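Q: Given only this backbone (498 positions), what sequence would you predict?
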């Protein structure tokens, strides 16, 4: 690959530099255009845009995002109630008898009134075929009568997770119902290709993927062709099989690596089943998904096999349980065990998390989606907990390794960064430098990356992006990505000459 000079920009982390030279997949020079221009034949003016290390999204559901993009699942994110139902009705009419309709992304916290979808509404909108509409967080779904009929065994096996009257399905039962119709491997590969194109357009050069029920080997196998680096996180129930095959965290190649095994301590605030100590405004304190001893045993088992764990914990009661579980397991710091989301930690829990040497992966876009007056956090938890949730600045101040990820809501690092640098509450707001760091080297650290990973530095991999202008707090909300390079290869070109 011949050398290329990107010039006329602002190189992030290198004040005074306006140009980057890329060759053989690596950054080979950073400096001033005058000094570097004579050395390289191929040159590209980036028009004053900021040049940044590529974003590393620390938490995605890329297969699900891709399935929605290719229409295998219907994406109703951002739709109002009527529109969501109308689109499901239209998609339902295109399906023949025996086919299922899965819709994803509805979020009643943004509707007025904020009532959830009901079985009866789905029955009217999508008659005659089984239909399931999964809430944006994936922890709650609503099914029509047809779908409930076909999944009676799920309701029998876990009656506490299925409300037949309302059509509501929760937690593990959602996964069990979705598993009724699995996409074949060719469909998964097509979905990954579509999702990788979106990543490139958004400046994401590495994505951490929660594999869910998808065979992780299909994703690893597809990775080189995607021109997107992936870190894959299979569910903990695959631990024994993976260990028997001699696979452990960190193994892989430049394109695909094994991350950690995924555990769930609780649900979500939107579904009112994240485990909190004080009740929700509507009553109830959510639920823990498993006993602490079980969680501790799974963490210890993962450690014995060389596996990092990454545990979903949103409410303070769940976060407390995860900290206890790690205390019980005697956690190996070298594995960089992670806590995901970490939305409602107490002040003491933040200190304990730092002391235990745990890393966290948080979602700045959640602040943009749900914080502030009238938002989900205030409605569900009251104003005090709205102001205290997602305490990014306290996490950083405590020295906890922090990576950032989108959780696919939506898949957009720039939106997340803009959300958190202009957050409505002081404890959520962090400087632009910290937000960029979280979405680059912070997320690199989460999967065992060395400090230089996720930075622009000579000798480092040429995973980078260019914005359509300079980067500052005032303009971040308007910025978009114009160029993305992975391993020196131009994978997205949104400039006018494209
Ligand atoms: Zn997730």
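A: Predicted residues:
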């Amino acid at each position: 690959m011949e050398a290329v000079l990107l010039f006329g920009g602002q190189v992030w982390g290198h004040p005074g530099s306006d140009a980057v030279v890329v060759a053989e997949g690596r950054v080979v020079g950073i400096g001033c255009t005058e000094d570097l221009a004579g050395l390289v034949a191929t040159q590209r003016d980036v028009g004053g845009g900021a040049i940044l290390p590529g974003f590393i999204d620390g938490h995605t559901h890329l297969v699900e995002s891709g399935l929605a993009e290719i229409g295998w699942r219907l994406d109703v994110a951002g739709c109002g109630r009527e529109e969501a139902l109308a689109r499901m009705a239209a998609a339902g009419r295109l399906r023949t008898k025996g086919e299922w309709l899965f819709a994803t992304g509805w979020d009643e916290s943004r509707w007025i009134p904020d009532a959830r979808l009901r079985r009866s509404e789905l029955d009217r909108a999508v008659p005659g075929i089984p239909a399931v509409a999964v809430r944006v967080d994936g922890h709650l779904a609503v099914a029509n009568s047809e779908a409930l009929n076909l999944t009676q065994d799920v309701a029998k096996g876990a009656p506490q997770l299925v409300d037949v009257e309302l059509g509501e399905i929760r937690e593990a039962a959602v996964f069990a119902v979705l598993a009724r119709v699995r996409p074949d491997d060719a469909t998964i590969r097509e979905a990954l290709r579509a999702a990788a194109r979106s990543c490139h357009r958004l400046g994401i050069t590495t994505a951490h993927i929660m594999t869910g029920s998808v065979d992780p080997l299909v994703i690893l196998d597809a990775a080189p062709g995607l021109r997107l680096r992936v870190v894959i996180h299979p569910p903990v129930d695959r631990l024994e099989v993976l260990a028997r095959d001699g696979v452990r965290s960190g193994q892989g190649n430049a394109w695909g690596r094994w991350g950690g095994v995924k555990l769930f301590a609780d649900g979500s605030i939107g579904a009112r089943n994240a485990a909190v100590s004080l009740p929700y405004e509507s009553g109830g304190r959510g639920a823990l998904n498993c006993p602490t001893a079980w969680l501790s045993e799974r963490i210890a088992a993962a450690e014995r096999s060389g596996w990092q764990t990454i545990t979903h914990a949103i409410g303070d009661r769940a976060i407390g349980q995860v900290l206890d579980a790690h205390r019980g397991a005697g956690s190996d710091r070298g594995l960089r065990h992670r806590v995901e989301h970490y939305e409602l930690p107490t002040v003491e829990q933040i200190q304990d998390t730092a002391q235990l040497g745990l890393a966290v992966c948080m979602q700045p876009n959640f602040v943009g989606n749900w914080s502030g007056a009238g938002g989900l956090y205030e409605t569900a938890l009251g104003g005090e907990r709205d102001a205290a949730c997602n305490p990014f600045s306290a996490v950083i101040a405590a020295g906890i390794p922090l990576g950032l990820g989108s959780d696919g809501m939506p898949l957009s690092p720039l939106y997340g960064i803009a959300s958190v640098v202009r957050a409505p509450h002081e404890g959520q707001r962090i400087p632009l430098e910290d937000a960029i760091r979280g979405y680059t080297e912070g997320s690199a650290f989460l999967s065992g990356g060395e400090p230089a990973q996720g930075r622009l530095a000579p000798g480092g991999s040429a995973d980078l992006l260019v914005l359509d202008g300079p980067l500052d707090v005032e303009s971040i909300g308007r910025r978009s990505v114009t160029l993305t390079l992975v391993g020196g290869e131009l994978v997205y070109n949104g400039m006018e000459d494209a």
